[in-house]
Structures are given as C-alpha cells and as structure tokens.
Amino acid sequence: MKVLIAGGGIAGTACAIALREAGIAADVYEAFGRDADGVGAFLTVGVNGLDALRVIGVSPFALGGFETPRMTISLGDGRRLAEFSNGPLNRADGLVARTIRRDELYGCLRDEAVRRGASIHYRKRVVGVDESIASGIGVRFADGSVTVADALIGADGLHSKVRALIDPNAPRARYAGLLNTGGYAENVRVPGAPGAMHMHFGKRCFFAYFPRPDGQVLWFANPGRAKEPSRDELAAITPEQWRAELNRLFADDETPARDLIRATRDILRPWGTYDFPHVPQWHRGRMVIIGDAAHAASPSSGQGASMAIEDAVVLARCLRDGSTIEGAFGTYEESRRERVEKIVALGRRRGNGKTPGLLGRWVRDMMLRLMLRQQRGADRDPMAWVFDHRIVWEQGAQH
After folding, report:
1. Distance between start and end Cα atoms, the chain
2. Does the first or last residue of the chain, that is N or C, have fewer Cβ atoms within 10 Å of its Cβ?
3. pTM, rounded to two decimals
C-alpha cells in the first residue's frame, strides 16, 4: 500500500511515522515551501499525546521543550485560586505534559519521518483528485503534476482542501470570538518556578505564561474580538499598535503581563481562534481527514496537537488491520469521533470564559471558585478521561 498525506504539519508528519511503523509506505506533500517549516508559536502536548508517540517508537523525551506538569489559576487582581496537575503525575514511565516550540516539535517529527523512509515534498498544493482509477486515487497538484496512491489522507488543517473534496458542503470553521498572540520574553523575573503554566483570568483579557528552566518565559494572551477579523485586518495592525493594545488590556491587572510584554522583542502577530463543532463526513472512497481538518479544537482545550497525534496512530493501526481501505476509514472514525468532539466542546467552554464583560466576569470568577472547589473535593480527576486515554498498538486491537 502507498499512502499520500496532504499537509506537512504535526498531524501529517506524525501520520507518516505511524504508517511506516505499521509497514505502510507513506509520503508527505506540503503546500508551502520548506521555509515555512514549523511556523507558529508553542504548544503543550499532554501525556495522552506523548503516550501515542511512544506507541509508534518516538521517545517523548527526545522532543525538546520542557516539562510542565502543573497549572495555576489566578484572577486579574493576582489572587491565586488553585494549583493542580496538568495530567497524571505518577505514571511508571515518568511521562508528564511538555511545552514545546512548534518548530522544535515539527522538526523532530519531520526528521523521524524521513529517517523511516518517508519523503517530504514541498510546494505541492492539492487541488483535485481523479477517482476513476480502479486501483487507487490520482491526486492533482497546483503545479499540474499528478501522483497516484492507494489512499489520500488530508492532514491539511483548518482550511483543508481534502475535506472539501470529500464533501463540497462541509461546514466552515467556527470563529470563537478570540484572538491569539504571544511571545518569548528574556531577562525578566516572574512569580512561579519552571514546570507550571500560570493562567490569569484578567479583567479584560486572559493571559498565561510558562517559565523555562533556562530563564526564558513563554507567554500567550487571548484578546476578545466579537467580529471575525479578516487576514488583511490583522496584517494591517503594526507591531507598535499591537504592543500598545496589549498594554491597554492588562493595565488594570496585577499580573506579570506588562513586564513580559516589555521584555519581548517580537510579539507574535495576532491570529483568530476557530473550532469545528461537527464535521459530518470524515471520509469518502479512498480519502480521509485527520487532525484539525476533521475536528479543530480551540487552543483553550490544550489538546490540539495530542488529538492530531492520536488520530495518526489510530488511523495507521486501522489501515494495518483492516481488510479494505474504506472499512479501515470507517473503523477509524468510529474509534475517534465521540472523543474528539468532546474535546472540541471542552475547548469551547474554556474559551467562553476568557472575555466575559463586566457582569460576566463576576459570574465567571464565582463559577471558577465553585468549580475548583468541587474539583479539589472529587475522588477522581475530572480530566482523567482526557489524559488517561491509551492506544493499544498490537495487531487486532480495537482501543
């Protein structure tokens, strides 16, 4: 079997590794040039995502980044509400959540995919398919070339072309009313030791930061914007205007936000937050979608990368064990849909509390206190269903 993967991000490279682990030839076709490798900020991979990588022979400890096994939640006035674990802390294999620069994680996965025999083809944008081929599918690219494969996997993200090829009436991504930004601050002291994500529900904006062991501090913010901005609108904001806007949003908060903004040379340009509550059709014929192409979750879920990695491993296992490609795709969807849609809903709920307005802020802060009090008194971590998920790789396994 030969599989073509559209999209060379985290989902696509993880899928190439998983397929090669399953004994299936797979190559990656990326729409952009190599100079776009790993673009973006940073992310946290939960223990469930790290465990999925371990299943296919990728050591989580070789990914780079740093461990972030704990989280704190505070209000904008500086009052700390809670500190708790970011996933289980007592695993026998020592896995805890890791925060990683996107380019570090991507580079590690890309290099591992190539080491296992996959090729990465750049500037190969999928524009169409030929489904009349009896024993495969022809994939057409914008440069006029065609490649024939047994199956096409769309790991091409939020604006997936493969999703549209499977279902021309597929829904658009849903704007969540939030922007994302962040940066890397140098030579600044912040409260809290490395190894934790420190979250602040500010009066006007949500803010979080991660102290690294080497002294650098990673941070992100989620300014609210009710109306969906266009790319041109966001691109028109100058770095000076954006820095001033962030300082205004945090002017009344007792947090390290303004110190970190001041200590950051280049603040990331803002981008919108989107999710997919439900994509009706994940596969058709010899085409299937994974990761954000199938079920984008808000970054507030903290699970985007982990869900993409889980998808890749489960799909590879299904293709290895299935008697037909179409049947394998059906088994993959059946195994994944309920879980990922619950994650999308989780991310939406978390995002809704980040910019609630004056009255909403009072209600939010009260509900946060109540929720955290209940969580501390619970017999079991209410997030265990997310983090304790394990994928069994052995032949014929169905979990």
Report:
1. 24
2. C
3. 0.91
Q: Which two tokens stand for residue 76?
A: 């904008």
Please check whether residue 140 is in contact with residue 146, taking contact to mean a CB–CB distance below 8 angstroms: yes
Contacts of 76 (CB under 8 A, 6+ apart): 200, 201, 202, 203, 252, 253, 254, 255
What CATH class does 2-173+275-387 carry?
Answer: alpha beta
Confidence label for 356 from pLDDT (cuts 50, 70 and 90): low
Span 144-158, mean pLDDT?
A: 97
Structure-derived torsion over alpha carbons of residues 5, 8, 11, 12, reported in degrees to the nearest 10 = 20
Exposed, middle or buried, 110 (CB in 10 Å: 0-12/13-18/19+)? buried
The residue among 14 and 356 whose pLDDT is bigger is 14
Decide which of 36 and 247 is more confident.
247
Distances (CA, A) of 263 to 185, 203, 231, 247: 5, 22, 27, 12
Answer whether 281's CB lies under 8 Å from 166's CB.
Answer: yes
Q: Record the tokens describing residue 312, joined without a space.
A: 């890749």
Q: How many angstroms separate the Cα of 295 from the Cα of each of 53, 126, 188, 347, 371?
A: 20, 20, 37, 12, 27
pLDDT for the residue 364: 54
**Token pair recorded at residue 267:** 């603040």
26, 20 Cβ separation under 8 angstroms: yes
pLDDT in tens, 153-169: 999 999 999 999 999 99
User: Sign of the CA dihedral 210, 12, 342, 158?
Assistant: positive
- Give the tens place of pLDDT for each residue, 219-228: 999 998 989 9
- Residue boundaries of the structural domains of the chain: 2-173+275-387
Three-state SS string over 152-183 comes to EEECCCCCCHHHHHHCCCCCCCEEEEEEEEEE
Other CB atoms within 10 Å distance of the CB of residue 352: 16
Looking at residue 34, its pLDDT comes to 79
Place of tokens 């265990």: 384
Whether the Cβ atoms of residue 88 and residue 47 lie closer than 8 Å to each other: yes
Sign of CA dihedral 11, 17, 19, 24: positive
